Amino acid sequence: xxxxxxxxxxxxxxxxxxxxxxxxxxxxxxxxxxxxxxxxxxxxxxxxxxxxxxxxxxxxxxxxxxxxxxxxxxxxxxxxxxxxxxxxxxxxxxxxxxxxxxxxxxxxxxxxxxxxxxxxxxxxxxxx
Length: 128
Fold this sequence. Notes:
3-stranded antiparallel sheet, 2 domains
């Protein structure tokens, strides 16, 4: 049941949430992401993605999340010359995901606006 699960972290980025989920799963902690589909689909709406674990795993999971955050902070403080191919590939994936999401939605929204304008003004011309 859902009441057996607790939220241990919130994320704005789906990619970041999945990174934490994968890390916890690799350490044997079952976890789920809540609101991931909504946050990914509605990119202009700021919805937190929740990382949930079973109550029995909460303490260990929080410890691992803290370790991951410290590791990420330490990597961000490193000089860029220390980056290896894996770090560079990860950064590229982050940027590619953002551009794909925003580009697709922008085209969709523009098309919807054009359609609405044509419907509104097209109907007015027919009635006048």
